[in-house]
Fold:
Amino acid sequence: MHRFFFDIIDGNSVLIDDVGTEFNGLAEARAEVIAFLPNLLRDKREISTPSTLTVLLRDSVGIQRYRASISVEASIVS
Structure:
């Protein structure tokens, strides 16, 4: 098992994952990032538009192995 860390960037805010999660390998960790992004956006209480959330995937020695982002732009239509 390999430990990976999901750091989250939301605009000017950065949340560093200091616990990590174990996966069988990089491919499994990347798949989890892709599955996690829509949930992260859905759980966001307020969305300034446009809004981009990014997850940086680091390995156990701190090397960034993957980066994925999801963006939303919304407006009220009258």
Notes: The first helix runs from residue 26 to 42.
